[in-house]
Amino acid sequence: MRNPFQYGGVVSGESFCNRTREAADLRRSVENAEKLFVYSERRLGKTSLIRKVLADLPTDEYLTVYIDLWPTDGETSFVLACAKAFSEAMSTSTDKLLNTARTFFSRLVPSISANDDGKAVITFGFDQKRPDIPLLEEVLAMPAKAAKKEGKHIVVVFDEFQQILEYESDAVERLLRSSIQHQSEVAYIFCGSRKHLIQQMFMDSQRPMYRSGAHYPLGLIAEDHWQTFVSGKFQETGKQISPEIISELCALTEGHPFYTQHLCHPLWELCETGGAATSEMIQQATSLLLDRESYAFMNLWDSLTRNARRLLKGVAAEPVGTQVFAAEFIRKYQLGSSSNAQRAVDLLLKKDIIDKQEEGIVIPDRFFRLWINSKQ
Q1: Which CATH number is correct for 305-374, 1.10.3630, 3.40.50, 1.20.140, 1.10.10?
Q2: Which helix (H) or strand (E) holds 67?
């Protein structure tokens, strides 16, 4: 029997837990052609949610373009990623794919190849004879042109949008801001999984994207939704789990979708058909996951400075909201000084190991946090 709990990739269909209100909010934003920043910590299901919203849009009315910026590292790769996504979104055949690319991108030279599944894949080169054509402006103008040509509403999603902060200049940010201001018929969703960077982009008055759209922080899933979801999956497969055990599980994962489904996966495996999950099984499932992750966690731990490790031990052990720059915390975890603590925080933020939230500094990886506590 297939395990009903999925994690680690885009989750859809019956494996998708709740998010009814969030999906409705995003749908309204799309219908109103708004510009929206959606952000949360990593693995919270932003991509799954966005893809669900896009999949539910009527194809005769909407054209959707999804662009993952994670692999990009500058203006050139940004342009190529956009050109590829736009061309593929507007094309239903190889001939149309080439025609679309040639029509909208006068300086890019498209070519078609087949992937391992036989599906047509488009790549682009540059026409060096036409250096006068501004590539970035041409790509950013495409959504409005596509809306006019296709007679449809356009939805453009930029995933991992904070990646453009790594570019050598803010040219993409500036031109994107200028472009979307004049595209009232196009909905834009900017997704990010490094909350403090995304917040910086639209809350810092010195940034080009300052106040260029509304913001939508994506939160955790409440326990009552997990109660229904988890108990339903167990019952459908001939197993039982009580509300008390689900509460115990959610206390460990805090309702985070990835970690909740991840922990449910071995818990379901440990529970025999016709049997019921127990607290002991949760402990066994947690130990199993930490054992599987221990090699990666140990390598990460060994890569950190001594003060970074000490600060992590403190954040993992203390209640959420503990002030890491307070004299008592610095003394207890032998950090030496507030400047040492600041350097450790800066390093861990850069490595995306900790996150700044309203309540304070947290370790977003629930299992890494448990692993740290298990070693103290």
Answers
A1: 1.10.10
A2: strand 62-68
